[in-house]
Write a structure and sequence with these properties.
138 residues; alpha+beta; 4-stranded antiparallel β-sheet; single chain; Transcriptional Co-activator pc4, Chain A
Length: 138
């Protein structure tokens, strides 16, 4: 099981990989391997615990590359992480587990560049294991 965490001053997002489909031979049409995972979000007193999440290792790869660029420049946006000034980061988003149910958690918390060093290390381990958009060959 792999995971990564984006932490901040009053919250965090933790994404866990539980199952990887097709690894190492069958990548999906838009890159990487299909993943079934879980998400945990804490923002202030609000919380999502073990929300089901479907994504791909290709999306993790793309996120890693964009986040590394923003981290190095201390500038830019990646998903809803906005590097604002002097290494400060505003993290915003929402989580809706089932599209058919109007139950949405909108969240926002602050972070800074120092929190992201460990996130980048965790993402690098996942990318090293599952590769880029083309996957990995054994």
């Amino acid at each position: 099981m792999s995971e990564f965490k984006i932490a901040g001053k009053n919250g965090f997002i933790r994404i866990e990989i539980n199952e990887v489909f097709g690894f190492p031979t069958e990548t999906r049409f838009n890159g990487g391997y299909d993943v079934k995972g879980k998400v945990e979000i804490k923002s202030g007193n609000y919380y999502v615990n073990e929300g089901e999440l479907w994504f791909s290792t290709g999306q993790i790869f793309e996120f890693f590359i964009k986040l590394q660029k923003c981290y190095d420049k201390i500038d830019g946006n990646v998903i809803e992480l906005e590097f604002i000034k002097l290494g400060q980061i505003q993290i915003q988003g929402y989580f809706q587990e089932f599209p058919s149910i109007e139950n949405i958690l909108e969240f926002e918390f602050e972070s800074d560049q120092s929190y992201l060093a460990s996130t980048l290390v965790e993402l690098k381990k996942i990318v090293d294991c599952y590769g880029d958009l083309k996957g990995i060959k054994e």
